[in-house]
Design brief:
- Helix content is 84%, strand content 0%.
- The protein has 133 residues and is an all-alpha fold.
- The protein has one domain.
- The termini are far apart.
């Protein structure tokens, strides 16, 4: 009788363990699915960050180009103004110096006030043309 009761306990414990194991396996599959969804979300966010980083690098490069052009124009403009102011002004003699200084001053203004980004945050089409000009 004791042996029968022990055998009966094993028979009832077995299905309980089976049901418990199936429940744990189902929870594990759900947790694995959620983990995979989070991995996909993180990968999408990383791709977006990489895209933003690439855009910022292009913007930084364009700004560096404009800064270099502006520095060169400023230095040339200062030199042109110094040359123009080096002796008393005579319109007939110094007209070319005056035109050069004025052209450089206007170029400094154009580069300094140029718009680098458009309304959507992308690069404008005009700044490369401005650099060439």
């Amino acid at each position: 009788m004791a042996l029968g009761a022990t055998a009966l306990n094993f028979v009832t414990i077995g299905p309980a363990l089976l049901v418990g194991g199936l429940a744990v396996a189902g929870q594990g599959k759900r947790a694995l699915t959620r983990a995979r969804e989070k991995i996909i979300e993180v990968e999408v966010a990383m791709a977006q960050m990489d895209q933003v980083r690439a855009t910022l690098e292009v913007i930084d490069k364009r700004i560096s180009e404009l800064r270099s052009v502006l520095d060169g124009l400023r230095d040339r403009g200062i030199a042109a103004l110094d040359e123009l102011e080096s002796e008393p002004f005579d319109a007939e003699i110094h007209v070319q110096r005056f035109q050069a200084a004025l052209t450089l001053a206007l170029a400094v203004r154009d580069v300094a006030t140029s718009q680098v980004l458009d309304d959507s945050g992308g690069l404008t089409d005009g700044s490369p043309e401005l650099i060439v000009k």
